[in-house]
């Protein structure tokens, strides 16, 4: 596969693949990055380049990842990755470009959209719905029936109680406990809403 992004998140993705032989090439808009983990970085994607292998967008920022997806979707298919140590229900689904990292859990009837990150040790319980470009950070827990809107970030070590709705482009701070629905574009820190982003 090809990888876009030559940063720490890309290192994690390459490590998940367990072999640099699976990486056809790395692209990044910064032409000053020559190599990543001993793999040459090709620089920006040429305008006329057609991806002949699946592309994985290895960018942690949700908005940036969305913009890159929109930029490349007409000329690429997108790879998805589930680490062997993850527990991913055979009755859960995920869309293209999504990654489920080491020791993460995705339970029955959960649905993960496009370009979602379920990070290390995160837990997505039964019947959760994660929209496109969501990031569930390391150690975060979504209890059953949680809905997370497009582009939202659920911070490291946070917990979202059952059946709640998290709006689009929400930020939940690390270590928070979410006890009620959160409207679009808001920030939740600790145990309360802090307002709009």
Automatic annotation (TrEMBL):
Entry annotated with the keyword Signal: no
Keyword check for Repeat: yes
Domain (PglD N-terminal): residue spans on this chain: 2-70
The entry's keywords: Acyltransferase, Repeat, Transferase
Family annotation (InterPro entries): AcTrfase_PglD-like (IPR020019), Hexapep (IPR001451), Hexapep_transf_CS (IPR018357), PglD_N (IPR041561), Trans_hexapeptide_repeat (IPR050179), Trimer_LpxA-like_sf (IPR011004)
Pfam families xrefs: Hexapep, PglD_N
Family in the record: Belongs to the transferase hexapeptide repeat family.
Name of protein: Acetyltransferase
């Amino acid at each position: 596969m090809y990888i876009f992004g030559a940063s720490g998140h890309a290192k994690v993705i390459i490590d998940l693949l367990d072999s640099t032989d699976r990486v056809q090439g790395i692209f990044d808009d910064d032409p000053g990055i020559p190599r990543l983990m001993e793999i040459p970085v090709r620089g920006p994607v040429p305008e006329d380049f057609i991806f002949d292998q699946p592309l994985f967008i290895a960018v942690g920022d949700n908005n940036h990842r969305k913009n890159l997806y929109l930029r490349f979707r007409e000329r690429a298919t997108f790879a998805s990755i589930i680490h062997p140590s993850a527990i991913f229900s055979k009755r859960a689904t995920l869309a293209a470009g999504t990654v489920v990292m080491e020791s993460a859990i995705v339970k029955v009837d959960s649905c993960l959209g496009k370009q979602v990150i379920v990070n290390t040790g995160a837990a997505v319980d039964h019947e959760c719905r994660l929209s496109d470009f969501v990031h569930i950070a390391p150690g975060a827990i979504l209890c059953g029936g949680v809905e997370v809107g497009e582009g939202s970030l659920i911070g490291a070590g946070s917990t979202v109680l059952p059946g709640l709705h998290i709006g689009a482009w929400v930020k939940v701070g690390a270590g928070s406990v979410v006890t009620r629905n959160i409207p679009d574009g808001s920030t939740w820190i600790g145990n309360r809403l802090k307002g709009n982003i």
